[in-house]
Amino acid sequence: MARSIVFIAIASICCLSLVRLASCSDFIVAGRVYCDTCRAGFETNLTTYISGAPLKIECEDREGDHPKVVIDGVTDETGTYEIPVAGEHEDDICEVMVTESPIADCNELSPNRNRARVLLAKNSGMPSRLRYANSIGFLKKEPLPECGPLLQELLAE
After folding, report:
1. pTM for the whole thing?
2. For 102-124, how does the pLDDT look when each residue is reduced to its tens digit (9 = 90+)?
């Protein structure tokens, strides 16, 4: 009787593991959304990360006719996101994009930092299914007073 219970428990655990593996997405796209508090065009020590920023992943064919896949996501309290993506996108161009910032005085899209391209192909030489996207940024309306000395220090190095 005890052996039967142990066998059933082990079989159940194995089945649950297989079900979980079967339902996994092919890729996880991870990254951060930030507020460029110095309007420097890159992250600094004074950069803050934006919680609750809506974003999306779009994959379209190389002709760019229309998006084949659109997946919505949102950043957590640390400004980080992890979005599961199903399927092989070897022949697609996939980008993570933000559309708006929940912070009123930091809602101007940073030029060239408002989207990040990600490679979502299994035959890419990357063994992990986790794909890191470059950080995506918004510009603060007015730079912080501490930015002047910080940027001078960065330029001096």
Report:
1. 0.78
2. 999 999 998 888 999 998 988 77
Q: Of 36, 94, 102, give the one whose Cα is nearest residue 60.
A: 94
Note the pLDDT tens digit of each residue in 125-137.
777 899 999 999 9
Q: What are phi and psi of 104, to 5 degrees?
A: -60, -40
Buried b (16+ CB within 10 A) or exposed e, 84-117: ebeeebeebbbbbebeebebeebbbbbeebbbbe
How far, in Å, are 36, 45, 55, 111, 126 from residue 141 at the CA level?
9, 18, 21, 14, 39
Cα–Cα distance measured from residue 88 to residue 79, given in angstroms and rounded to the nearest whole number: 27
- Which residues are within 8 A (CB) of 152 and not within 5 positions of it... i.e. 6 or more apart? none
* Model confidence at 19: pLDDT above 50: no
- Alpha-carbon distance 157 to 147, whole Å? 16
The string of DSSP letters for 55-107 reads EEEEEEETT-SSEEEEEEEE--TTSEEEEEE-S--TTEEEEEEE---S-TTS-
Close Cβ partners of 97 (under 8 Å, ≥ 6 residues apart): 55, 56, 57, 58, 114, 115, 136
